[in-house]
Amino acid sequence: MPEHSVVVFDGVCNLCNGAVQFILKRDPKQRFIFCPAQSAYAQAQLAEHGLQDLGLESFVLIENQQAYLRTDAALRIARQLSGLWFLFGIFWLVPRPLRDWFYNALGRRRYQWFGKRQQCMLPTDELMQRFRLE
Question: Which of 9, 12, 56, 92 is the most buried (most CB within 10 A)?
Answer without folding.
Answer: 9
